[in-house]
TrEMBL record:
Family to which the UniProt record says this protein belongs: Belongs to the alpha-acetolactate decarboxylase family.
DNA damage is among the record's keywords: no
Catalytic activity: (2S)-2-acetolactate + H(+) = (R)-acetoin + CO2
Species of the source: Cryobacterium arcticum
Protein name per its UniProtKB record: Alpha-acetolactate decarboxylase
Alphabetized InterPro entries for the sequence: Acetolactate_a_deCO2ase
Length: 240
């Protein structure tokens, strides 16, 4: 059993994003009060969010990165204070699937949340970013039709995010949800796939989930339990 409790803070739900709830009421400043590590997106799906070492980045549809403002709003984000309890050195070229297998083999239980940070040299990283959405918002399955897939060549950087158990379906993205940013904080996005040359995987367990739901009319009206929830998550978040 984990020695200590460790809190993960989340605003809104993956299922709300899928339903087109792209405007939230949580500021970046609030997120940073609850963690120095995390990911998510910004209102109107205007960029992918990554928080590393207490700094929040907005990664735009063209793959470029700017620092987020404290007042920027998020419709979905997950953060924690990253305190690694497990470190796995990776000395040989490793695919995303192999990295996931390494992580899964190391976890003491599949039944908790885990924050994962992979720092290293990458042969390539394939990411996507979604185009900023205009109202009236369409469901995520429609919004990603305009997504751009980018591939970054050899670079050093960080792949970071969360591993969520299957019971978290709809709350988060079951399996891994990770974002990439290069070491110069110039390029990044939502990770589809990568090839790691070498690096270090660090893992931080999450035993407690604080879920803060938006106090918005749109959230009140959202359909959060579609019949094809699992398919929608697979299609929008996990495709390669
Ligand atoms: Zn993402």
């Amino acid at each position: 059993m984990p020695a200590d409790r460790h809190l993960v803070y989340q605003t809104s739900l993956m299922s709300a994003l899928l339903d087109g709830i792209y405007d939230g009421d949580t500021t970046v400043a609030t997120l940073l009060e609850h963690g120095d590590f995390g990911l998510g997106t910004f209102n109107a799906l205007d960029g992918e969010m990554l928080i590393l070492d207490g700094v929040c980045y907005r990664m735009r549809v063209d793959g470029t990165v700017i620092p987020a403002d404290a007042s920027d709003l998020s419709p979905f984000a997950v953060v924690t204070r990253f305190v690694p309890t497990v470190t796995i050195p990776v000395d040989a070229p490793t695919s995303r699937d192999e990295a996931v297998a390494l992580i899964n083999a190391t976890l003491e239980s599949a039944n908790y949340l885990y924050a994962v940070r992979l720092t290293g040299e990458f042969e390539w990283v394939r990411v996507r970013a979604v185009q900023r959405q205009e109202k009236p918002y369409q469901p995520m399955s429609e919004a990603i039709r305009g997504e751009k897939t980018l591939e970054f060549g050899r670079s050093s950087g960080v792949v970071a995010g969360f591993r969520t158990p299957l019971y978290g379906q709809g709350i988060g993205v079951p399996g891994g949800h990770v974002h990439y940013i290069d070491a110069a904080h110039q390029h990044g996005g939502h990770v589809l796939d990568f090839a790691l040359v070498s690096g270090t995987i660090e893992i931080c367990i999450g035993t407690d989930l604080h879920l803060e739901l938006p106090l918005t009319a749109e959230f009140e009206q959202a359909d959060l339990s579609p019949d094809d929830l699992a398919d929608q998550i697979e299609q929008t978040e996990n495709h390669r």
